[in-house]
Design brief:
Radius of gyration: 26 Å
Structural class: alpha+beta
Strand content: 25-35%
CATH topology of the largest domain: Glycosyltransferase
Strand order of the largest sheet: 1-8-9-10-11-19-16-15-14
CATH architecture of the largest domain: Alpha/alpha barrel
Number of strands: 36
Largest sheet: 9 strands, antiparallel
Helix content: 25-40%
Number of helices: 15
CATH class of the largest domain: Mainly Alpha
Number of domains: 2
């Protein structure tokens, strides 16, 4: 693969020159704390989504996220002039003009805003406390005389998917402490504690009808009311940094600047250094935002701002987020949590849920567990304690469960293929439930990629069993692999399309047999996971069809444009968006499978390597969040970015392809 070079010392952190222009400040930024809490907004701090805010806390880390603090109305009083820096949007009105003073934004590695106020500069820095539901804001005045700083927090105090309306239930009960103010306006939520070095002036009120333009485009309720307990007034001397902290239940105990230093050190350490290509450095930094390591339950957040901990996404993303970056201990912790959450020897769709209800099983996530075990074993060795003592026994239980006759969710067909049987369960990534709606690709029966996951999984199990001296399991696993591969070769190739069937339905299915010849990327996933299922000519044919019908500059389409039901654009109502997910949108993470399958056929083709590098690096562009990669793009030019703005699998698979597959 390509040799490493020195690429210069340009840091991987994003920077935006605003110069008082709102159009320069519409990109979003994201900052996380390693325990599920996050801060997010636009560069101008003009919230576009209900999910934006200064402190979104994970009350049951890393889940149960609540928007505690949305805005902090910030005013700097210089001599006789007041500069209101906040940018608030109301329906039918222009946003308040605080952005006109904004000179630049950078995330190096903490979010930092620099304002030009007359001839002086004012700097604001935001830092989430690692592992805690708390945020520290630092304010520095670069001017000739002291100034007054007025801060008014605006609180929705709600779960991230809901909105707050003005009501009479907010209670202004204030507990004053030295350097702190504690309130609990909503008795159903923890208290909120403000740490400050000034004066608190209690003046409870509502800010009414603040609008979220992106929610309006998504055709959902798009405005809400925010409550404020009052304002804090601080004095800043030239060159001095004053701190303002907000915590859920309590404030951080150590000095606030120590928490800032810890966060800076941790985030800076995610940069692999200037000897690596810029794309690798930027994706390495982006990857850390999905890793939840600073709380009891290690996990991968599937995406920001609205996705939670989803087992399928965790397992697919784990190699790129953890193993590629040498974070083996983090991978072990995540996998231990997933195994501990298994029920009836299957991996649930969600590892933990807010309502504590048992999540339904996920057949394909269960099979992706074999892939995660294979990757960890290849990096840490089969003697690794997590592989041997945690993953291997879990894989044996899954193997036995699937082979038992009559399982209602996932079992083996008479010829040894994996059959998913229940439409009410999220069988594969293409018919996952989205709220109350199921995407328009039900795949009950024999999905092509599940056969590859089972075939490769039995091989992984057999090799581990042989390593551990468990000859009975080894023989059973290798026998199952042989049966699956033989049945696959006999049943899955479609001569008419020169491409595998996407899904087969058995003759004894109550809805009758089916042979779905849709050209979808699931055959590409199968080729990536277990290339031994295919003859070389078949692999070449699959990749040719993918390049002709599915590949775009931003990802791999979920459906051939010539197929019935194709929808190449993402938009409309909730139901319309849910249908479009798997009917033609180009998914970014599938570029990883495309790169690996292509390189296996031509490992020494320099032109191919260069094409893949350019394609993968280009797929990072166009999303709304600085430094992040979105979930998918439109299937049609100009391939507008869409879906979740920051997606774990997208970042992980691009990083894995660049580092492991292309050797950069």
């Amino acid at each position: 693969m390509s040799p490493r070079n020195s690429f210069g010392a340009e840091p991987p952190w994003p920077r935006v020159n605003v110069n008082g222009r709102l159009e320069n400040a519409e990109m979003e930024w994201l900052h996380t704390n390693g325990a599920g809490a996050y801060s997010m907004s636009t560069v101008a701090m003009r919230h576009l989504r209900r999910y934006h805010g200064v402190l979104i806390a994970a009350l049951d880390p890393p889940i149960d996220r609540h928007v505690i603090v949305s805005h902090i109305e910030t005013t700097v009083v210089v001599a006789e002039r007041s500069y209101r820096l906040s940018v608030l949007q109301s329906p039918g009105a222009a946003p308040t003009p605080g952005y006109r003073f904004l000179e630049s934004f950078s995330q190096d590695p903490l979010p930092r805003w620099t304002y030009r106020l007359g001839r002086a500069r004012f700097e604001q820095r935001l830092c989430l406390v690692r592992g805690r539901n708390a945020v520290v804001l630092g304010y520095t005045w670069h001017g000739g005389a002291p100034v007054a700083l007025q801060l008014r927090p605006l609180l929705p105090l709600r779960r991230i998917h809901t909105l707050t309306r003005e009501h009479g239930g907010m209670m202004q009960r204030v507990r004053l402490q030295p350097g702190a103010v504690e309130i609990q306006p909503n008795p159903g939520l923890p208290s909120v504690v403000f740490g400050h070095s000034g004066v608190f002036v209690g003046s409870p009120d509502w800010y009414r009808r603040l609008e979220y333009p992106e929610d309006k485009l998504r055709r959902v309720d798009a405005d809400e009311d925010l409550w404020t307990p009052g304002s804090f007034e601080l004095s800043l001397s030239p060159g001095q940094t004053g701190y303002f902290a907000i915590g859920v239940d309590e404030l951080p105990t150590a000095p606030l600047d120590a928490h800032v230093e810890r966060a800076v050190a941790h985030l800076s350490a995610q940069d692999p250094g200037d000897e690596r290509p810029p794309a690798v450095r930027e994706l390495s930094v982006a990857a850390e935002q999905f890793c939840v390591d600073d709380c009891e339950h290690a996990a991968v957040v599937a995406g920001y701002p609205w996705l939670t901990v989803l087992s399928r996404d965790e397992l697919i993303a784990l190699p790129g987020l953890y193993l590629v970056r040498g974070r083996i201990d983090g991978a072990r912790r995540v996998l231990r949590e997933i195994v501990a959450a298994m029920r009836d020897d299957l991996v649930p769709r969600r590892i933990r849920s807010v309502d504590k209800a048992q999540s339904p099983p996920s057949p394909d996530a269960t099979l992706w567990l074999f892939e995660a075990a294979r990757h960890l074993s290849s990096v840490a060795g089969p003697g690794d304690a997590t592989v041997k003592d945690v993953l291997y026994p879990a894989l044996v239980r899954v193997f036995r469960r699937i082979r038992q006759p009559g399982n209602p969710i996932v079992a083996l067909s008479p010829d040894g293929l994996v059959e998913s049987r229940d439409d009410d369960v999220a069988l594969t990534w293409m018919n996952a439930h989205t709220g109350a709606t199921t995407a328009a690709t039900p795949r009950r029966g024999l999905p092509v990629e599940l056969q590859a996951l089972w075939s490769k999984g039995t091989e992984t199990l057999g090799k581990l069993a042989r390593e551990y001296g468990d000859t009975e399991i080894a023989e059973e696993a290798f026998s199952a692999r042989s049966r699956t591969r033989a049945a696959f070769a006999q049943r899955f190739w479609c001569e008419a399309t020169r491409y595998p069937y996407d899904c087969l339905r058995s003759v004894d299915d109550p809805d009758g047999p089916i042979m779905d010849g849709s050209i979808r990327p699931n055959a590409l996933v199968a080729l990536d996971v277990d290339p031994e299922l295919f003859e070389r000519w078949q692999a070449i044919a699959i990749l040719e069809r993918v390049r002709e019908r599915l590949l775009t500059v931003r990802g791999v389409r979920s459906l051939d444009p010539d197929q019935p039901g194709y929808r190449g654009e993402y938009g409309g109502t909730f139901e319309e968006r849910a249908i479009a997910y798997h009917q033609g949108l180009a998914w970014t993470h599938l570029l990883g499978a495309y790169a690996r399958a292509s390189l296996r056929l031509a490992p020494d083709d320099f032109d191919l390597q260069e094409d893949l590098r350019v394609r993968i690096e280009g797929a990072r562009a166009g999303g709304p969040v600085l430094g992040q990669v979105c979930q998918f793009a439109d299937g049609e030019p100009p391939h507008r970015a869409g879906g979740c703005p920051a997606q774990a699998t997208s970042v992980a698979e691009l990083l894995r392809a660049l580092v492991w597959d292309l050797g950069l």
